[in-house]
Amino acid sequence: MNTMQINNELNITYPDGFETMGEEELIRYFRTPADRWGVYNADEHIILSVSWKKAGFKYLFTDAESYMIEVESVLHRTLLNYQRVTDYKMKIGKKKAYAIRFEYRVKDAALVQLCDLVVLKYKKHFYSIYYVTRKKGSSAKLPAFEEVLNSITLN
């Protein structure tokens, strides 16, 4: 297992077999490397990424739920064949987190990806935790994401 501290506030543990994503890979999958960390497992076709954004007047969001609504609207506009599968709530540390599971089609390919996105607010930041894998065989990979989420501690 590996542990990473993100933005000096969030500690996340993830399984062995993942490699750190470089700037080029972060841009390829998320359009920008700014305020984002990510790892991937090429053999299992899994990406785990965390982004953070400062909360405040500029973004007009006061809580994780309203921030999630905005993030989902952006995903809906930018991803090919975006479709929400489900939504759920959970606690990370003692903080409320809002989550969605959605599918989308990879551009120029027939592959369908499945993504779980969990959003929480901690101190002055919104954190978005992405777990992306191919839809085919995804049910076997979701328990690993639950372990990752359960490993998160907040400083």
What is the radius of gyration? 15 Å
Proportion of strand residues:
over 45%
Give the overall form: globular
Span between N and C termini? 20 Å
Order of helices and strands: EEEHEEHEEEEHE
Major sheet: size, sense and barrel closure?
7 strands, antiparallel
Structural class: alpha+beta
Low-confidence runs: none
Give the helix level as a range of percent. 10-25%
**How many beta strands in the DSSP annotation?**
10
Oligomer: single chain
- Count of DSSP H/I helices: 3
Strand arrangement in the largest pleated sheet? 3-4-5-9-8-7-6
Mean of pLDDT: 92
Structure description:
The chain is α+β, with helices and mostly antiparallel strands and 155 residues long. It is 21% helix and 48% strand. The chain contains three helices and ten strands, in the order βββαββαββββαβ. A seven-stranded antiparallel β-sheet has the order 3-4-5-9-8-7-6, sandwiched between helices. Strands 1-2-10 form a three-stranded antiparallel β-sheet. Strand 1 (2-6) and strand 2 form a beta hairpin. The chain is globular and about 40 Å long. The two termini are 20 Å apart. The model has no long low-confidence stretch (mean pLDDT 92).
